[in-house]
Amino acid sequence: MEKPAEPRWLTEEEMQAWLALGGVLMWLPSALDAQLQRDAGITHFEYQVLAGLSMSPGGTLRMSELAAFSNGSLSRLSRVVDRLEKRGWVERRPDPDDGRYTLAVLTEAGREKVEQTAPGHVEEVRRLVFDPLTQAQARQLREISRRIGQAIDPDGGWPPTAAP
Q1: Residues near 127 by beta carbon (within 8 Å), at least 6 away in sequence
Q2: Residue 126: CB partners within 8 Å, gap ≥ 6?
Q3: Is there a contact between 74 and 64 (Cβ–Cβ < 8 Å)?
Q4: Which residue range or ranges hold the HTH marR-type domain (predicted)?
Q5: CB neighbours (10 Å) of residue 67?
Q6: How does pLDDT run across 97-151, given as a tens digit for each residue?
Q7: Range of the domain at 63
Q8: Is residue 24 in some structural domain?
Q9: Tell me: the pLDDT tens digits for 2-58?
Q10: Residues near 45 by Cβ (< 8 Å), separated by ≥ 6?
Q11: CATH number of the domain bearing residue 106
C-alpha cells in the first residue's frame, strides 16, 4: 500500500495571506450588507438579484440563470424573489420560449429601487475596496480574483461579469 503524500503545508507568508483573505471574505459581505440594510432596507443578496435583473436585456432572466449569477440556490432565490414580489420590485412569469422555466422580471418600481440604491452601494464598495488600493493594486486584485475564481470553477463560470 502506498504511503499518503505529506500535506503541502502553507509557508508563513502563505498563511498570513490566507488569514488576510479569510478576514476579507468574512467581514466584507457583512459590511456591505449593513450599508444596504441601513440605507435601502434590503440585503446584499436582494440587491444582487435586483442588480442582476437590471443588467439583463429587458430586466428579465430565467430563475436558474439568476440563481447562478447571484451564487444562490434556486430555493434561496425563490424565497428572496417572493419577498421582492411582495414589495412590487419583481414579477415571475412563465418563459414563453419554454414553459418549463420561470422568468424573473424587474418591474419599473424595482428598477427605481436599484437606481436609488446603487449610488450608496457603489460608494461603500469604493470606500472599502478601491480607495485603500492604488490603480496597480486594483488591477492585481482583479487578476488574483480571476485566477482564484477559475480554480474554483474551471468549467467557465468565471469571471462573473454581468448577468447573462
Answers
A1: none
A2: none
A3: yes
A4: 1-150
A5: 22
A6: 998 999 999 999 999 999 999 999 999 999 999 999 999 999 999 999 999 989 9
A7: 40-152
A8: no
A9: 888 899 999 999 999 999 999 999 999 999 999 999 999 999 999 999 999 999 999
A10: 70, 72, 76, 80
A11: 1.10.10.10
